[in-house]
Amino acid sequence: MSTSDWLHTDIGATTADTITIRGRDLAGELMGRVTFTELAFLLVQGREPGPGETRLLDAVLVSLADHGLTPTVLAARLTHTGAPESLQGAVAAGLLGAGSVFLGVVEDAAVFLGEIVRAAGPDTDADLERAAGDAVAARLAAGRRIPGLGHPIHKAEDPRTPRMYAIAAEAGVLGANLRALELVAAAAAERSGRALPINGAGAAGAALADLGFDPAIVRGFALLARTAGVVAHLAEEMRHPIGMPLFRELDERLSAEER
């Protein structure tokens, strides 16, 4: 195998006077014509999205951009406190904590729902309901949580979820994964006796799966969205720092306890 057979990318290329993205001229065909949401879809999927796909992906990115002073945002702010010269380090710190509690649920839900959709086979409501019930029963029997359900703050309803479903339906892209998630929530409530809301991360994961993204890459879109929020928090930290006051408050409390 020669170097030219494997050392290449289909995503982009640069010459002395052109830049191409997925075979399209960046300056002439993309800049001023496509939104960043459409570009993100094009980069990963290799094709431009339809209007409904763009609307749903945009809703997903908006829904995941920020959720207040979460641990990941605090990590970014405190990193900036220690190294204000390294904006990139602070941004990275704010993204490294994406996991099973924050943001990573997007991927967990997509993986879980993908298994249900595959088990359902023919895409009928009865098959999907059966597969969802089986998957929920197996999870509960094993003492494992159901991805995409429950939220530490939004106990009754995550406000992002009904809006996500409405947008998907209006855009004509409400697919098997979003439907499966509703069935999962119903099955979990019936079997456990406790109704947990579908959280925004779970709905985002289902929506991304319905848009055709591989579950292994959907967390990347959560990180893409949250980067905007982290940058906003760092801009605020520069204007109104809370990192150093937070450190001093903790230091004073620890010193008082030691006394």
Structural overview:
With 259 residues, the chain is mostly helical. Helix content is 65%, strand content 3%. It has a 3-stranded antiparallel sheet. Helix 7 crosses helix 10 (176-192) and helix 10 (176-192) packs antiparallel against helix 11. The radius of gyration is 21 Å and the shape is flat. The mean pLDDT is 93.
Indicate the percent of residues in helices. Answer: 55-70%
Spatial arrangement of strands, main beta sheet: 1-2-3
Average pLDDT: 93
Structural class: mainly alpha
**How many structural units, i.e. domains?**
2
Order of helices and strands: HEEEHHHHHHHHHHHH
Quote the beta fraction.
under 5%
Short description:
The protein is mainly α and 259 residues long. It folds into 2 domains: 1-34, no CATH class; 52-259, Orthogonal Bundle (Cytochrome p450-Terp, domain 2).
Pick out its properties.
single chain; 259 residues; mainly alpha; Cytochrome p450-Terp, domain 2; 2 domains; 3-stranded antiparallel beta sheet
Secondary structure elements and their pairing?
Layout: H1 3-6, E1 12-14, E2 19-21, E3 24-25, H2 26-30, H3 36-45, H4 51-63, H5 71-82, H6 87-96, H7 105-120, H8 125-141, H9 160-171, H10 176-192, H11 200-210, H12 215-239, H13 243-258
Antiparallel strand pairs: 1-2, 2-3
